[in-house]
Amino acid sequence: MVNLKISSQNISLKKWNSNDFDLVLLKLDFTNDITINESESSIIYVKYKQEGEFKENIILKTTIDNRELKIKEIVSPTLKAHNDKLSVHKTVVNSIEVTVPINFRTLINTKSCSMKIMSPFSDIYINIGEGKVNLNQKKIKGVINSISADIFCVNPLSKLLITSKAGFISGLNKSSITPNLVIKTIRGDVSKECFIN
User: Of 90, 159, 188, 189, which is the most buried if we count CB atoms within 10 A?
Assistant: First the structure.
């Protein structure tokens, strides 16, 4: 692990051998931007960047449980509550870039963020409250559960099963084929590009 402090940024770099694990679980409740890239090797690599006045209040904690690599953000145990009326205007901006092998089981849980999936992963599971998910590859296999996050696709070749209670779904075609990617949303929209095959 390498920790760098560059002016108003903290950058943390970590890596592991994926052969030592069956899955990686990311629980990121304070991150604004998440990017998931394909690793060209068996290395899992994490680059975590923090900015803002209260950046030291959030810590990226890593635990290993059996063969599960768990990476999660926690509030610092040394956090002191301030009676500062202007603290609502003070920001923390966290971003993370995670690089994993393409066939590696990856689970992501987040409350609110912008997420980019940059490779055709075959075993990815995403739970997101709000924000957006950009699927920037043609074939992705897994599940996306969203409360109100919008889903955007780039020329997908994946067979999709999409359900929404109140969101807008454009271009939906019913199919009896087993889907590669299941998208479930309550209020999120799914872009029409998700249906172009």
Answer: 188
Is 47 a domain residue?
yes
| Residue type present at position 124 | I
Q: How far apart are CA 43 and CA 159, in angstroms?
A: 29
Nearest-angstrom CA–CA distance, 180 and 149: 20
Compute the C-alpha angle 123/130/108, nearest 5°.
25
Indicate whether 125 and 190 sit together in one domain: yes
Q: How many CB atoms lie within 10 A of CB 121?
A: 25
97: containing domain: 6-76+91-101
State the total domains in the chain. 2
For the chain, what percentages of helix, strand and coil (3-state, to nearest 5) are there? Answer: 5, 55, 40
Question: Could you tell me if residue 170 is inside a domain?
Answer: yes
